[in-house]
Amino acid sequence: MPAETNALDSVAARRASSLENLPAWLKRPIGKASELSTVQRIIKQRQIHTICEEGRCPNRGECYAQKTATFLLMGPTCTRSCGFCQVDKGHAPMPLDPDEPRKVAESVSLLRLRYVVLTSVTRDDLPDQGAGWFAQTIAQIRYQNPETKVEVLTPDFWGGRDNPDALQQERIARVVSAQPACYNHNIETVRRLQGPVRRGAKYERSLRVLSVVKALNPAIPTKSGLMLGLGETEAEVLETLADLRAVECDRLTIGQYMRPSLEHLPVAKYWTPAEFDYLGAIAREMGFAHVRSGPLVRSSYHAGEEDAQPRR
After folding, report:
1. 217: exposed, middle or buried (C-beta count within 10 Å: 0-12, 13-18, 19+)?
2. Model pTM?
3. Contacts from 40-43 at CB under 8 Å and sequence distance 24+?
4. Backbone φ, ψ for residue 188 (5° rounding)
5. Taking the chain (312 residues) in consecutive chunks of 10 residues, what is each chunk's mean pLDDT?
6. CA pair distance 176, 58, nearest whole angstrom
7. DSSP annotation of 191
8. What is residue 77's DSSP assignment?
């Protein structure tokens, strides 16, 4: 048997073993091919990207069946190297596609979406790190789909070493001026684990993103998300929730970290559905208006729904 075949079989065996070791509550069907094809066809024809595919989201079958997707702007390659993320990294990102905002808006029309989530890779190589690109894409979506609401999930728009706070605020202001329906920026993990989990990001910098949004336009709901299973304690999670409420974060998602590959950080713990329910209840008591807390919850899962109950 050729060496290439042995290698492929070994990879497949490791993946199968990993799946078998998952707790039952993390296993779900991928969805019917007929239900997935419409969204996949539209995005592939236009050479645009979704975080559903690039991030291997476990809910993409369900979302595609409902003809929804979270668009990934500015290409599939990130300039940072977070230890948890499946998105491509480690080499130079592609130049921006000048037609991307129009293509995304066109896809929104074809899918008849009433609520859209825009996210992006981190583009530290761009002069404004992509803030203007978010604003352009929102404008294009509104031009073609006046009734569609747009949520954003942005990077931290770090301002560099010379004038970090002023530049960060300027970039956030460009997105805020486009008046998204919700402004999301994920803190991802507790303060102690920021270094190994979010390489290049800072806990206080992420809190400041949410704080600046509120200062610029208090009417825009803010949102953040946490992954559990990276070695955090319950006390650290509650401390993070308190820090988010201290900057008036309105909405919260809490989900389980699932290791994308052997090159990514290992899972330290699989939190149970009961533990997620417990944390969700505490978050509501702390004043978060919308809370989704469950093993398979992700940042944009059921985004736009008005009720505050967790969905799994």
Report:
1. middle
2. 0.86
3. 40/64, 42/107, 42/110, 42/111, 43/69, 43/107
4. 70, -50
5. 42 43 78 63 78 64 68 84 65 88 93 89 90 98 95 91 88 98 96 90 96 98 96 98 98 92 87 98 98 90 55 37
6. 30
7. G
8. E
